[in-house]
Amino acid sequence: MKFSMLPQVFAQMFKKPFTNKFPAKYQPSSTTKFLADVGTGKAKIIPPIETPEGFRGKIQYDKDKCIGCKLCIKVCPCGAIEYKEKEKKIKIYVSRCCFCAQCNDICPVDCLSMSNEFLLADTDKYSKDLIVE
Amino acid sequence: MSSKQTTKTTYQIPIGPIHPALKEPVAFEFEIDGEEIVDVDVKLGHVHRAVEWTATKRNPIQILYLAERICGICSYCHPTAFTIAVENIADIEVPERAEYLRVIQAELERICSHILWAGVAAHELGFDSVLFLTWQMREKALDLTEYLTGNRITKGIITIGGIRRDITKDHLPKIYETLNYFKDNFEKLRKIFLDDKTVRMRTQGCGILTKEDALKLCAVGPTARASGVKKDVRVDQAYFSYADLDIECITPDILTGEVNGDVYDRIIVRLLEVKQAIDLIEQCIDKMPGGDIVSEPKVAKVLATLKKASGESIGRMEAPRGEVIHYVKLEAGNECPFTWKVRAPTYNNIMPWVPMLLGEQIADIPIVAASTDPCMSCTNRVAIVDSGKRYQLNREELHKMSVEKTRRLMK
């Protein structure tokens, strides 16, 4: 066929777009107002597509289990983990984390794990949401 | 009265260092006669990020993730080539199951990379509907990657002495579903690329690299194979479990019976390699034995072994773009490697641009440069210096010229 793309183009015209319109179908004129509306139940957020099993999102830390062995600090490729001398515990800066989950592998007591959370945008890299301790 | 004399001279177009169709910043200087390219000069070395130096301050486990960030599309083959080198030095035996799993990941990356390239090549021709069709397929490949590794691009799947995630029975239905989707759509993609008049007009007889030039300039990967050079690390020096699998070098004469070494042949080779990759993944799943996936599950122990190891070695691997070589030297008592040197496939495929581009037109630059699959970096500018009058040609205008040439040929 001379122009073999044409049938494909016509077929595509009658298909629904694949994009999931997260968080709203159209961009709200004011994001803060939209979020307030969501809080009061006036507007609804279109949920994001679910993450697959084994997704590596924001890190979770079980402080009580931690024995302070510093192995995670040794393997962290981006130096996102800080050791707190006094408490003998760690502090993780998520803004530096590269989500490789190597610390989860090396941890001898399994106190680190990855969650499904991926909405981590923030204007302040030291904000409370981005520091795990 | 003296008559006004005009002399016909060539003029120069510098392209780059930041430019269309180039993965790394590269500077070109084209000598142009009218529309025709008469001379090309290539200058390299604008994207030095000191990755290799940084590695000398880190331990091998940390370097895996540094290597992953050398290139976004080859985020599997760089750490893997490094791993092969380190395993050679420390004599680490990799379990057989891990070898098969490594092949599956490598071939999945090849599918992603080649389909992405096919879309970009179509875009350079001004055939954007094909770009969206191919990237629709790529999305499926990325979904599968995310399902198997946990991330879409920086996979973080390889580790020294094995692989980090296993493929269990629960994974198989999704893998088969995606592979069947590829098989169904592959025929469609093949028809569009190989039979469509638009693609053939722009790619046949364009950007020719002869077999002699390919051998002389050490071209690697699909670029060399499209010129008829049977060169593939997977076949020549089988690593992982490639030796157990049914695999052969893909050259364009398998399909068309002749080797021209033009852009069209490079499209054929890449499309056939996608088909081969699907086949290899299926073979791996069938033949995969049971057992461990890492030789030493405790990472701290691996690090201790590597600290004692000393020596130097090379890790070779067939990345989607060609052969990638990593040279590593370890010293006993020092956790960080003494040296690490990376030779990426695009480095070899830069010089073949010169014979490819000679005699072509300005409008052919994007597709010829893209045909060796350097990663596309966006917005770039070309400055044309024409007898003192300086004007600039940006990325969009160059792309427009390419689209216009397609339109002209269609008339």
Task: Give a brief outline of the structure.
The complex is a heterodimer of chains A (133) and B (411). Chain A is an alpha+beta fold.
In words, what does this structure look like?
The complex is a heterodimer of chains A (133) and B (411). A three-stranded antiparallel sheet of chain A has the order 2-3-5, with no helix packed on it. Chain A has a two-stranded antiparallel sheet with strand order 1-4. The mean pLDDT of chain A is 88. Chain A is α+β, with helices and mostly antiparallel strands and 133 residues long. Chain A contains four helices and five strands, in the order H-H-E-H-E-E-H-E-E. Chain B is α+β, with helices and mostly antiparallel strands and 411 residues long. Chain B has two domains: 25-47 and 348-410, no CATH class; 51-206 and 236-247 and 268-344, Cytochrome-c3 Hydrogenase, chain B, CATH 1.10.645.10. Chain B has helices spanning 51-55, 60-68, 77-90, 96-125, 128-149, 172-195, 197-203, 211-216, 221-226, 233-236, 253-256, 263-287, 299-308, 345-348, 353-357, 365-370, 395-410; strands spanning 11-15, 27-33, 36-43, 158-159, 162-163, 311-319, 322-330, 339-343, 381-386, 389-394. In chain B, helix 6 (172-195) runs antiparallel to helix 12. The longest helix of chain B has 30 residues, at 96-125. Chain B starts with 10 loop residues before the first strand and ends with a helix. Classes of the chains: A alpha+beta (133), B alpha+beta (411).
List keywords for this structure.
heterodimer; A: 133 residues; alpha+beta; 3-stranded antiparallel sheet; two-stranded antiparallel sheet; 4 helices; 5 strands; extended; B: 411 residues; Cytochrome-c3 Hydrogenase, chain B; 2 domains; 5-stranded antiparallel sheet; 17 helices
Give the secondary structure arrangement, pairings included.
The complex is a heterodimer of chains A (133) and B (411).
Chain A: H1 5-13, H2 31-40, E1 59-61, H3 71-75, E2 81-84, E3 89-93, H4 102-106, E4 112-114, E5 131-132
Antiparallel strand pairs in A: 1-4, 2-3, 3-5
Chain B: E1 11-15, E2 27-33, E3 36-43, H1 51-55, H2 60-68, H3 77-90, H4 96-125, H5 128-149, E4 158-159, E5 162-163, H6 172-195, H7 197-203, H8 211-216, H9 221-226, H10 233-236, H11 253-256, H12 263-287, H13 299-308, E6 311-319, E7 322-330, E8 339-343, H14 345-348, H15 353-357, H16 365-370, E9 381-386, E10 389-394, H17 395-410
Antiparallel strand pairs in B: 1-2, 1-9, 2-3, 4-5, 6-7, 7-8, 9-10
